[in-house]
Amino acid sequence: VRQQEAQRQKLIAACFPLDGSIPDKQAAADQIREIIDLDRQIVSMLEETRQEVGGVLSNLNQGRRAIGQYRAVAQ
Q: Which terminus of the chain has fewer CB atoms gathered within 10 Å of its CB, N or C?
């Protein structure tokens, strides 16, 4: 994700120079399409990671419940 974001930031800087000039409008349009594609890739990666973390948290909670039940039975 960091590499994708770094690439995205470079493209944004190239597309939208601080002086406001856009010398090659076609190149800028191509770069904007690339930025949109990178955004989609980043969102997809983050969604996958979110699902993975959700699964890990679910397993942890299940383990905590099981430990609680074992303790309740042992007493």
A: C
